[in-house]
Write the structure tokens for this entry.
Amino acid sequence: MLLEGIFSPITTSFYPDERIYFKKLEFNVSRLSLTALAGLVVLGSTGEAVALNDAETEDVLRVAAEVAADEKVLIAGIGRESVKATVELAETAARLGYDAVLVRNPSYYRPQLDAPALLHYFRSVADRSPLPVLLYSIPKFTALEIPLEVVTELAQHGNVLGLKESSGSVERVRDVVLATSLAPRRTVTVTSIFEAVTGRMLSKKLPANGNFISAEGLASGGDGNVALAVAPPVPALKTRTREVGFQVLTGSASNLKESLDAGASGAILGFATCAPQACQEIYTAWKEHDDQLALDKQARIAEASGVVAAAMGIPGIKYACDFNGYYGGNGRSPLLPVTAEGRVKIERVMAQIRN
């Protein structure tokens, strides 16, 4: 699976009584599917995955998969504290049609979670997961970074696609890219313009067409002299192949351009959930080798991403979603809503980033 471009980790909306508001989830997925984003992450950190029980997790994964556009790479956040629970969710994601799974490191028993334990955890999950695994290192939440030597070792695993690196450090991105540069390369299927081909694209069924009458139905009706209307064939998906190695995605919007320069193949950005186009423009300019435009586009979102995502976190992203035409709402308790002062600040920094 090719992991290039900008991915949005979608929010999970709730009713005032904290039940999941599935219609709002459907709206967000549908609207984000119309953007130029490469894909969506369902139940990452921005989706408040740790606040949902297993039944709710499966429901959110199912609804999002039903609505997402076929051409979008769909990644399920499934990290749990045990190998068994994580693998069970990977199996659920596979059954629901996801393309890959995002697996954060366990962190609760931190004193015992040394490099050998983390290597065992991720290797065991990758061995048993029916979907390719994207490692997820987010030390600001887990207080535990996946050691570089563990990432390097896991890069040799045939079912590990890459890493989402959310430390915010360009140097860490550069170190991971360099350390995994000799990882085995794999052949992946891409479109004719070198975009990702998803499992849902390949498994898409020919839709039933109510405008055509079956031959059996016509034959049973009379003299056999009726011309048959035949549905035109759906054009075959034109694909080609490409070689990719271990793929690194950054989680930081503030230094996206620098991370791409350091070797990242793309990004999973919380800020892309409320401002997808603004984030996509940075990547597009970089892809077209227009360094100055990429820097200008990054400077445009610098203050907003710092205020909304970095400083205010999930509540800030959710309010920015509400402000920018998506559904956000409040986080699930104990997360508190943005204060009135915070709302004013978000509206100010987001005023020129309406997309």
